[in-house]
Amino acid sequence: MAPILEVENLHVTAEDTQILHGVDLAVDEGELHALMGPNGSGKSTFASTLLGNPAYRVTAGRIRFRGEDVTDWPTDVRAKAGMFLAFQYPEEIAGVPVVQFLRQAVSARAGEDRSVLEVRMSMTEWMQRLGMDPSFAERRLNEGFSGGEKKRNEILQMAMLDPEIAVLDETDSGLDVDALRMVAHGVQTVRDERPALGILLVTHYTRILELLRPDVVHVLVDGKIADTGGHELADRLEAEGYEPWRR
């Protein structure tokens, strides 16, 4: 069986600057991969490219989802097929309640209209599992949300949309210890319910990996995968930093 996500020799530019220089990576069903690297290493570029952000141009290499080449697919087509990106900086959408946003997103993912009642019932169930206040559904998307609330809303979206591969771009950034634990708990709750879900967790901190033990850890330095291993690689990064891989 083909991996859920397979990246082969990926080269990417933005504004005529080469950022990724031949990245290879594959995520199988049920696996949690951590992609780690210092600031400026290309982590967020990689995450955005996977979901087809037009600001980034693939100059060589392929992105495959379930064995199918999606390198040239638009973002919305990738999302409908089952690819999901949780943003590092989720944007506010003025005037749009969370429940209405999710109704439109779930309907697009399902390929047919979903009623507000159906979405609300599913959303209420997931908010209970994720420990979220039910009033959250009526709030405007990310308006006045704390950093932790924005990230937990991304996890709620992941749960509702039922993707096959989820790319979490620095979901842990800017969170205090309590918020980090809640977000990690949310990710694990979704994994427990959807054991086939593949996750690529992009981060430059090891602290979230104390709560979500990755199956595979990749080190991205200067736009290339410099090393791949198990959780012991994250432990080494915590102890030594990224300097050993810069040489």
Question: Quick gist of this model?
Answer:
This protein is an alpha/beta fold. Helices cover about 35% and strands about 25% of the residues. The protein has a single domain, classed as P-loop containing nucleotide triphosphate hydrolases (Rossmann fold), CATH 3.40.50.
Description:
The chain has about 250 residues and is α/β, with parallel strands linked by helices. It has one domain (about 5-90, about 145-155, about 165-245): 3-Layer(aba) Sandwich (Rossmann fold), CATH 3.40.50.300. Helix content is about 35%, strand content about 25%. The strands form 2 sheets. Strands 6-7-8-3-9-10 form a 6-stranded mixed β-sheet, with helices on both faces. It has a 4-stranded antiparallel β-sheet with strand order 2-1-4-5, with helices on one face. α5 (about 145-160) runs parallel beside α6 (about 175-195). The termini are far apart.
CATH architecture: 3-Layer(aba) Sandwich
Spatial order of strands in the largest sheet: 6-7-8-3-9-10
Query: What shape does the CA trace take?
Result: globular
User: What percent of residues are in strands?
Assistant: 25-35%
Q: Round the Cα radius of gyration to an integer and report it.
A: 18 Å
What composes the largest sheet? 6 strands, mixed
Which consecutive residue ranges, at least 5 long each, have pLDDT under 50? Answer: none
Count of all domains: 1
Instruction: Provide a count of the helices.
Output: 7
| Tally of DSSP β-strands | 10
Essential attributes:
6-stranded mixed beta sheet; 4-stranded antiparallel beta sheet; 7 helices; Rossmann fold; alpha/beta; about 250 residues
